[in-house]
């Protein structure tokens, strides 16, 4: 006998209650570990009252290995849409209370749907990851469904911003989905990402390693470079996502959102002359320079502890977001190495994909030398920066603060590499190499044959520096558009961005280029 409408409504209500009500023991365990539940995370991420859930009652169709008795509504992931600062987003949040958040076919289909739908609608997608990994009971069905997630991540790249927060384990094949997204956040002490777990490593290699040592936030934010941002707890992580979204457009067809500011566009930066020493060999903190330039001193740095010789991140100028790429003289003298090149290239390409202008602050002594760097492929990795800048069609402004030597200056976007504006501070030194090395090459024989080699070398060094020090040669040969005083930097950047706002530039027709990955 068919069920009545009232009976069906009661059954639906009962299932929805099961899906909505977290297992008290599982929730208590999450809280004891300093973590929020899946639904609490969504509530903290989105504007209050805006979340609309989809596929709440989806369940695994697997009945093998006792799964018929274990299945629950939602299948371990909460999916739907809502708003962040009034802007629509799609979100999924894995639920450790249901089958340990393991990814089954229904679970994976829900995530693939979220990514696909966000792309169709042109809104950002946010994944909150907390899962024990693939659900092995479902066999090939789950691997096929997970493959759909990877496919959706890949073809969605560059269409809409994709953000992944690792808020618990993210194990095995499941960690590839965050790796295909634009930004990864991790929570200290409670989140781990890795392909092969400690048990397998122990069995195969005989090595003993903890989950945290293998894939914790410290490893991925400082050593591997996988993670962009690290939060102290779940609440801070979710607040970071909200802040990050404030710099990003909803999709590739929109400009980044403008934020009202009372910071004077013409504000003079008198402090910069004290922050940046004239002595080329003296270090300073480039973060102080960036924070002096941007609106209200707000700079959102990414990968802060990875490849620390280069700084990347977002700031605003007269309310408009911009991406910053800058040498950091406090580490490796600001030289470019393998990791710094990768860090910059990926960020430049993201900015270009989403209409965010790129501002480059150059103070580079060259590529970091040595056998180790050559073995790691500095040629290939350094070429990524060249490729990324040349490929980018967004407004590109480069300011040379003190020096730019050799191929490293091209890797930081000179005019020939596509800079729309190249500005120099007085006292800059632009050359094939630094004075000391150049003199050793150009005047080696003359110095060796001199009765006073030290004096001759000093004289030749002075001659070389007189020729290449300062902006005159760069200006006369049109290497640079103009010389500006440090105090004028903010005003000139804002003026340049204003004229470049409607820039349009095409690239040769092709299927795609081949970046030296």
How would you describe this protein?
With 517 residues, this protein is of the alpha/beta class. It has three domains: 5-245, 2-enoyl-CoA Hydratase, Chain A, domain 1 (Alpha-Beta Complex); 272-428 and 470-500, Alpha-Beta Complex (2-enoyl-CoA Hydratase, Chain A, domain 1); 434-468, no CATH class. 40% of the residues lie in helices and 18% in strands. Strands 1, 2, 3, 4, 5, 6, 7 and 8 form an eight-stranded mixed beta sheet that branches. Strands 9, 10, 11, 12, 13, 14, 15 and 16 form an eight-stranded mixed beta sheet that branches. A hairpin with a 2-residue loop joins β2 (77-84) and β3. α5 (105-121) packs parallel to α6, α14 runs parallel beside α16 and α18 crosses α20 (453-468). The longest helix is centred in the first third of the chain and has 17 residues, at 105-121. The radius of gyration is 27 Å and the shape is elongated. The termini are far apart.
CATH topology of the largest domain: 2-enoyl-CoA Hydratase, Chain A, domain 1
Say which CATH homologous superfamily of the largest domain is assigned: 2-enoyl-CoA Hydratase, Chain A, domain 1
Find the structural class using helix and strand composition.
alpha/beta
What's the mean pLDDT score? 91
Number of domains: 3
Number of discrete helical segments: 22
Q: Sheet with the most strands?
A: 8 strands, mixed
Structural Rg: 27 Å
The amount of helix comes to 40-55%
Write down the CATH class of the largest domain: Alpha Beta
**What's the shape?**
elongated
Strand content: 15-25%
| Cα end-to-end separation | 63 Å
- Report the strand count: 16
